[in-house]
């Protein structure tokens, strides 16, 4: 190698995301409304609430079973979803109609609703049949935290505790 050979150097290391301020938990609540009320109290007393966060901890998945799912209900659910989708697509095509705009818009929306309901019902029944009785119930799923932590930037955490009157 020659003396004048260029050297390859690595670029300076920088974090990909600017570092967030260090935060400390000053309270834990069982429900969101209580955490929200604490932040509101801080705001009412002039505390810089842009330095506060409510963090949900210990997420749990809750699936509430809403009923049995048989062929008629599967068809009905599929028809409802298909009708909404079909009506929206028909409405969008109707917006582009330049020949008798109002009647064309309305007719395309109605035809889309009907066609979508038929296709949706067929698809709902087909999916239900392909599951072979493995999931013959309807449900609604939600994620929810068990607790809510009130997190405050480390350098103002003591002020937040004092402002809320929790420093006894």
From TrEMBL:
Protein name, please? General stress protein
Protein keywords: Membrane, Transmembrane, Transmembrane helix
What the entry lists under InterPro entries is as follows: GSP17M-like_dom (IPR025889)
* The keyword Cytoplasm is assigned to this record: no
All copies of the General stress protein 17M-like domain together span: 25-92
Transmembrane ranges?
A: 78-100, 106-127
Chain positions covered by the region annotation Disordered: 1-22
């Amino acid at each position: 190698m020659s003396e004048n050979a260029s050297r390859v150097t690595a670029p300076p290391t920088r974090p990909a995301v600017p570092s967030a301020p260090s935060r400390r938990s000053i309270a834990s609540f069982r429900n969101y409304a209580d955490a929200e009320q604490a932040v509101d109290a801080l705001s009412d007393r002039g505390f810089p609430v842009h330095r506060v966060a409510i963090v949900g901890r210990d997420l749990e998945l809750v699936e509430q079973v809403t009923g049995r799912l048989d062929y008629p209900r599967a068809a009905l659910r599929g028809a409802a979803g298909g009708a909404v989708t079909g009506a929206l697509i028909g409405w969008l095509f109707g917006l582009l109609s330049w020949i008798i705009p109002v009647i064309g818009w309305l007719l395309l929306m109605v035809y889309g609703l009907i066609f979508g309901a038929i296709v949706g019902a067929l698809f709902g029944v087909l999916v239900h049949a392909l599951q072979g009785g493995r999931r013959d119930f309807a449900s609604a799923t939600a994620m929810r935290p068990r607790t809510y932590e009130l997190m405050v930037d480390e350098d103002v955490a003591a002020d937040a505790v004092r402002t809320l009157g929790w420093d006894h």
